[in-house]
TrEMBL record:
InterPro entries assigned: Carboh/pur_kinase_PfkB_CS, PfkB_dom, Ribokinase-like
Domain of life: Bacteria
Entry GO MF terms: kinase activity
Signal sequence residues: none
Upper taxonomic lineage: Bacteria, Bacillati, Actinomycetota, Actinomycetes, Kitasatosporales
Name of this protein: Carbohydrate kinase PfkB domain-containing protein
């Protein structure tokens, strides 16, 4: 079957306001002077994955709800600038937004504006079906509209991936995504026993690959019943921000997967891209390119 798109990214479009703070947690004070400035830019998890895939040469299409507001225009402008196809479904409540407090060590605290979405938000089934059927792969963000799209996606038979982010292994909201995807990414940050959670995903769901990222400790890869550790890759420059590192990892892993690379090679690509992302300030969107990714991965082989 011919396809127009390598990866369809569902959901996760929005705008972040970035505030660099002197420390996290931030002690109470009447006011703080932010010398680095407070900046608002387009880019949430779906945007970062879509831009990361496109930077690696994959034909990428992004589908989500966007408001007719200044934040929505920032998202549209970012996709135009980066050459990523975007289908925007009208969102009367407005475009999703968040405030990210970023500490000196690159850690972040995100404040999400939940007023910009409603439980009855939906992506049109016909649009989801048409775009999925013309794609090799679909990456699904863990938003309410995407949860409702899972049955339609299954009917298409197109392989799925998702990122559960900092799931604790128990929150029932994440389970439909965890059990529906063929490839599952998640952070180990909130897991007391990452291996147990990873194996449970495989036992009860469709996943053939599960990857738990652990920041500077690398990542854990579960495939064919075997759990292996993937070392972290040294960042090519000083670490300034961890925002988007997990999205970069997922995009590069999918790049390798769709190119036919074995899982451990895919995880190496993810580690390289994640390390690169940590050197990019939150105020920018600069994904690693294909040539640089392959060059850094080759360096890791020696």
């Amino acid at each position: 079957m011919s396809t127009d798109t390598d990866v369809l990214v569902l959901g996760g479009a929005g705008v972040d306001t970035i505030v660099y703070v002197p420390e996290l947690p931030l002690p109470y004070a009447d006011s703080y002077m932010i010398d680095s400035g407070i900046r608002t830019r387009a880019g949430q998890t779906g945007d970062f994955v879509a831009l990361g895939l496109s930077a690696l040469g994959l034909r990428t299409h992004h589908l989500d709800l966007l408001g007719d507001d200044p934040e929505g225009e920032l998202v549209r402008a970012l996709h135009r600038e980066k050459g990523v196809a975007l289908t925007a479904i009208p969102q009367p409540a407005g475009t999703k937004r968040a405030v990210n407090l970023v500490g000196p060590d690159g850690r972040r605290l995100s404040l999400y504006d939940t007023s910009r979405s409603h439980a009855d938000d939906r992506l049109p089934e016909a649009t989801v079906r048409a775009l999925a059927e013309s794609s090799r792969h679909v990456h699904v963000s863990i938003t309410h509209p995407c949860a409702h799209a899972l049955p339609v996606l299954h009917e298409t038979g197109v392989p799925l991936s998702t990122d559960l982010h900092d799931w604790d292994g128990e929150n029932p909201y994440h389970e439909p995504f965890a059990l529906a995807a063929d490839i599952v990414f998640l952070s180990a940050a909130a897991l007391t026993d990452p291996e147990r959670t990873m194996r449970r995903i495989v036992e009860h769901g469709r996943a053939r690959l599960v990857v738990a990222t652990a920041g500077a400790e690398g990542a854990y890869l579960l495939t064919d019943g075997d759990l292996t550790h993937v070392p972290a890759v040294p960042p090519p420059a000083p670490v300034v921000d961890s925002n988007g590192a997990g999205d970069a990892f997922a995009a590069a892993f999918l790049f390798g997967h769709l190119d036919g690379a074995p899982p451990r090679r895919c995880a190496l690509y993810g580690a390289v891209a994640g390390a690169h992302a940590c050197t990019v300030p939150s105020t920018e969107t600069a994904a690693i390119g294909r040539d640089r990714l392959l060059e850094r991965a080759a360096e890791m082989d020696h």
